[in-house]
Amino acid sequence: MMFGISTPRAQRPAFAPRSAASADSGWLSGEEAIMGTAVSVELWSADRARGEAAIAAVMTDMHRIDHAMSPHKPESELSRINRDAATRAVPLSDEMYALVARAIAFSELSEGAFDITYASVGHLYDYRQRIKPSDEALAEARAAIGYRHLQLDRATRSLRFARPGVRIDLGGFAKGHAVDRGAAILRQHGIKNGIVTAGGDSHVLGDRRGRPWTIAIADPRRPGEVVAVLPLEDTAISTSGDYERFFIDDDGRRCHHLIDPKTGRSPSSVRSVTILADDGLTTEALSKTVFVSGLEKGLRLIESQEGVDAVVVDATGELHYSGGLLAGAAPARA
Predict the structure, then answer these.
(1) pLDDT at residue 198 tops 50
(2) pLDDT at residue 277 above 60?
């Protein structure tokens, strides 16, 4: 893993792809809209056919994950779980079983700040229509939040909900899993230099043929501008922010898609959290955890995890860095 912090520039993209028509014609890229976000792959391959096959394989797997884990597709495995698990144990695929098990482990690590049962309340929000639940509906739905309501049976590889009203959502987890899978697929195709991105989650493979990949952290309040640029090699990175899906309610409060499982409401102590680690499941889960936990508690957790680092933009716009980043480079601010 390599990282440091360089001076940001306005309008800098999340990563700077080199066109396949450039002097180094081994660079290839592809992009599709999957899982409700932009999914992109860029890689270098001396064999163009192999590179194109690798990109196609990643996109095929992204569609497969979306089909299995979308809460919006009635036929998905996730929808079947939410429909049936309150009344019977639902058999899980090996992939879903592993993800739910990891989610429960992160819930225990975070003392409930990360909890996939947040969806018991989350489904009551509609950010496009500026709809939030009433106090009464929120109180009723909050009773169904709690990872301890998830009865995961190792022997039968099944999941049952301990009470009615429980729902799960892998929106804070599936994209991290997807970019990890994408990086693994690139390796299987013999690719040594590439990046797989799904929304705010990326997994970087190698470097950019002699120089690092650069991933920008967006300014949460100034669209198109960034607060820091991270040069990376062989790592995963996730950013969670209150600017992605939100509306301002009648009381002037920002209602966004990151929900505190304890309150069922949007936390407001930070604006964005970026996590770096070896895998996307860890980065995505911990970005949500730190956002909900807040700056002090969140950074204490990050400092306790080996090989994990964080950049946090607090409620005032101030930047904060974990010890590993501070030791690696002097932070630069916009």
Answers:
(1) yes
(2) yes
How many structural domains comprise the chain?
Answer: 1
Residues 205 and 195 sit within 8 Å (Cβ to Cβ): yes
Exposed / middle / buried, residue 236 (Cβ in 10 Å: 0-12, 13-18, 19+): buried
| pLDDT for res 244 | 87
Return the pLDDT at 11.
31
* Spatial separation of the C-alpha atoms in residues 175 and 185, rounded to whole Å: 15
Q: Nearest-CA neighbor of 212 among 50, 329, 39, 70? A: 329
pTM confidence score: 0.91
Q: What CATH number did the domain enclosing 104 receive?
A: 1.10.3980.10
Residue 113: which domain range? 77-161
- Helix 280-293 to helix 295-303 angle (10° resolution) is 150
pLDDT, position 22? 43
